[in-house]
C-alpha cells in the first residue's frame, strides 16, 4: 500500500535503528519524508524493503564501543550528529511518537523560530531510588544520574525527553555527543546530555 508522505518542508525528519530492535513494531511504511540511520546490514536491508530511506552507519548492529546495554542510547546522539552535518534543520523522532494531526503551518512556523526543542517528562523521586549494589545495572545508573542531572520540582525529577529533538544549529548535535562522552554518561544518555547542555533553570507555567 502506498500512502502520501507527510510534507516536512525544509525540516528533515530522522530516525535511528540499532541492535536487535523488532522492526515489526515500527510503521510498516514510511510516514514522513524521513531518513533512518541504521546499524546492522540486516536491519538496513529490511528497512529498505519497507520503503525507508536509510543510511548505514555500521554493518554491525552496534557501535562496538557502545555495545553495552547501558550505553545503547548514545546511538541516537551519533545519528543526530551525522544528520546535522547533512541537513540544516532536523527533527529526530523515536518510533513510539505518533502523529495525531497533519503537520501544518502552525507547527512549522513555531519550530522555525527555534534552534532547539525537546519536551520534558517526570519521575517520582520515590520511584527513582534504587538499592542495587550492581554498579553496572541500568536502574542503578539511572537513579544516580537522575540525582545529578535533573530539575527537582514538587517531589519529582524532571528531565528532557529525547523522543522528539529539533535542532537547527549543527554545533548543538556535536556538543551533545561530546558531553555524553566526556561525562561518561550511562543510561538515558541522550536525555542527561540535553539536561547538562541546557545549563538553565526550569520554569513551568
Features:
205 residues, alpha/beta, single chain, 6 helices, 31% helix, six-stranded mixed sheet
Structural notes for this entry:
This protein is α/β, with parallel strands linked by helices and 205 residues long. Helix content is 31%, strand content 20%. The chain is built from six helices and nine strands; from the N terminus they run E-E-H-E-H-E-H-E-E-H-E-E-E-H-H. The strands form two sheets. It has a six-stranded mixed beta sheet, sandwiched between helices. A three-stranded antiparallel beta sheet has the order 6-8-7. Helix 1 (41-49) links the parallel strand 2 (34-39) and strand 3. The longest helix is centred in the middle third of the chain and has 13 residues, at 74-86. The termini are far apart. The mean pLDDT is 90.
Topology:
Elements: E1 12-17, E2 34-39, H1 41-49, E3 53-58, H2 74-86, E4 90-93, H3 105-111, E5 116-117, E6 120-124, H4 138-148, E7 151-153, E8 156-160, E9 164-167, H5 170-182, H6 189-198
Parallel strand pairs: 1-2, 1-4, 2-3
Antiparallel strand pairs: 4-9, 5-9, 6-8, 7-8
Helix pairs in contact: 2-5, 5-6
